[in-house]
Design goal:
Helices cover 9% and strands 46% of the residues. The protein is mainly β.
Length: 152
């Protein structure tokens, strides 16, 4: 009898975020990987046992990515294109980008990826500085998008 081999689950602490093939960086925390389908309930005359549940639009929450401060300019280059002078230079038009979050295995190869469409940075929060603190300097990026699909 052949034995079934199951791979160890991937360690969720190693993942990277890329936009249009450019690695923005490795992050220590990602939230917002979810989708919700709106449900509309419709009552049918004469049917008292239940209401019909019709599926509607999909709702994709913003992704929130956190990491320690790095010396990479990729994150700020993307932000600069979507705000301030960068936005003015592009005729006040934000070009949505495709992005990807990949969970990495021990050797650095992707185990699974989530590919996002229409991604745009909507918020950046820098570290909180306090002379008495020994906490890691953390930056946070929030990204809106039009949805994702998984890639194995």
């Amino acid at each position: 009898m052949a034995s079934a081999h199951t791979a160890d689950p991937p360690f969720t602490g190693r993942f990277v975020f890329a936009v249009d093939g450019i690695t923005i960086g490795a992050f220590t925390e990602v939230s917002g990987l979810s989708v919700q389908i709106e449900v509309e309930e419709v009552a049918e005359g004469g049917q008292n046992a239940y209401t019909h549940k019709l599926l509607g639009r999909m709702k994709w929450p913003n992704l929130v990515l956190k990491r320690g401060i790095t010396d990479s300019d990729a994150l700020f280059a993307w932000l600069a294109e979507c705000s301030g002078e960068g936005l003015t230079l592009k005729g006040n038009k934000v070009v949505p980008r495709d992005g990807e979050i990949s969970v990495l295995e021990g050797r650095g190869g992707p185990v699974r990826s989530w590919h996002f469409t229409g991604a745009k940075p909507v918020k950046w929060t820098g570290p909180r500085f306090a002379a008495s603190s020994r906490e890691l300097a953390v930056e946070e990026l929030e990204v809106c998008h039009l949805g994702f699909r998984t890639k194995l």
